[in-house]
Amino acid sequence: MRSSWADAVENSVGGSSDNAGISGRNEPTSAVAKSAYVPPHLRNRLPASEPPAASVGGPHSFNDRPGSGGPTSGSRWGGGRSDYGRQGYGGGGGRGSGGWGGRGGWAGRDREVNPFANDDVDAEAEPAFNDQENTGINFDAYEDIPVETSGGNVPPPVNTFAEIDLGDALNLNIRRCKYVRPTPVQRYAIPISLAGRDLMACAQTGSGKTAAFCFPIISGIMTGNFPRRPRGVRTVFPLALILSPTRELSVQINEEAKKFSYQTGVRVVVAYGGAPINQQLRELERGVDILVATPGRLVDLLERAKVSLQMIRYLALDEADRMLDMGFEPQIRKIVEQMDMPPPGERQTMLFSATFPKEIQRMASDFLSNYIFLAVGRVGSSTDLIVQRVEYVNDSDKRSHLMDLIHAQRANGVQGKHALTLVFVETKKGADSLEHWLCMNGFPATTIHGDRTQQEREMALRSFKSGSTPILVATDVAARGLDIPHVAHVINFDLPNDIDDYVHRIGRTGRAGKSGLATAFFNENNMSLAKSLAELMKEANQEVPDWLTRFAGRASFGNKGRRGGGRFGGRDFRRDSSFNRGNSSRDYHRGGGGGVYGGGYPSAWD
Ligand SMILES: Nc1ncnc2c1ncn2[C@@H]1O[C@H](COP(=O)(O)OP(=O)(O)OP(=O)(O)O)[C@@H](O)[C@H]1O
């Protein structure tokens, strides 16, 4: 048995390691002489003297894979210019011609690394967007999803990417990502953001929120007309800031954003704690348009005056509620309110999460201006996509029970590279000890938690993603946002105390329309979760064991369920009369452009 598991693992290893890690990014710094300043919307395009016909061919006219031709004519972008059809790119300037400068974009020494180099992508050979299916995504799962918007003059949603003017370069990257159709949150959020509106978006896990905030930011930077950024100082002036609660999530957003912005001239840099700051400073000094950061490291950079937020035009907070849970509120308020960032109204602000407790909605009301609230219900069938099971298991039996589950998975052929298991535990010590025990029992496991060095955390994640180590034991540090393909089973070895955390944890499987399994070990220690867990499962059409229903009925007095005004958000807080009383100047509008779409539900989560 041991050997067959080991064999499966070994077979899964070859060539799959993820070498696109963040900290060791090797962007060649070629010795090309420093070129004259080129505004970002004109970067990538051939010199004016060259006939545009060569590059109007855009997608079909170049191959950007390393070693396959690449740049010609001294252009660092080698004919990759594919935005000729875009409004504002014509003639000698267009919308974005004004005053870009300083350390933004790629106008400098570096050659842009192809973030698709390891992917099996031939987007150039693909036709324009059509109804062909994306690899694996089950779009039927997204039909009839209840969507609620509130706020004034809500821009209408779109059905296809082709309906949105994102520009050819970004469209090509979307095809390279194999996104054929926008997911529901993208259908609504992208037009809202492109219209310049602030947005608070609540959408289910794994539904494509990252692209929903990245696309409008990238597109806005490509076409915007921004004042010149100061030169000759060692401070950088990003135009967009994306804040996220964990290092790994920042790394992931950075990787995604780099794909979306490839050859658009927009440069993305990440800064997060636990990794050498000098390396991040060097990256920043090469230019930055979009800065992805964790709050702690960003405060450090601001205090050292390495970064100024003076030019920020776009602010996105991903997993905003988690940042509050982690105690980041002082840092976030410092970043957003007490440094030099333009105030609400002068910048565009977006908040995204799958859960929005009241606390974050109150903070949002300070950060957002005339915003639209968007709640996209759980993917209609995500209830079916993530099968949730809860089993009564005493603490002393948990290990043997876990062993049984893993054995059962193996017996069912659910193993190897394409079936990863993520096991959540309560404590860092517990994580180490369970990892050790699994390894001792012949199950290759690794662990990720806050006591490991950042390098160890990243190695663990890479090893898990690649399938080299198909079991990852994690604390909540891995609960939010991480998008790891092939997580087939999430096991809550220790349940969290908070139902929001449960939602995010199980959301590591069943992503992008794919199915998944989530098993929870429940016992007397989890009584405080009984009611909300039973409610959540019922709402998701899952089988709720009778014993859990009984526990839920007896749940301690004062333990609020999700519907009882508990932490679980999902409706526009501006409707709350107590909130409105204290904030009478706020702009809540009902009706008009707002309303409930699909399904007729009052709200996704209510
Ligand atoms: N339009 C699309 N078509 C196909 N796949 C998509 C599309 N948009 C996003 N995806 C894929 O769906 C997966 C989930 O996306 P993402 O990580 O942005 O979800 P999320 O909503 O941020 O999840 P979480 O709440 O867990 O953070 C990713 O693998 C992403 O590449």
UniProtKB/TrEMBL annotation:
It is an enzyme of class 3 (hydrolase). Residues 398-552 form the Helicase C-terminal domain. Keywords: ATP-binding, Helicase, Hydrolase, Nucleotide-binding, RNA-binding. It catalyses: ATP + H2O = ADP + phosphate + H(+). It holds the Pfam family DEAD. Belongs to the DEAD box helicase family. DDX3/DED1 subfamily. This is RNA helicase. It comes from Salvia divinorum. The lineage of its organism: Eukaryota, Viridiplantae, Streptophyta, Embryophyta, Tracheophyta. The gene is RH37.
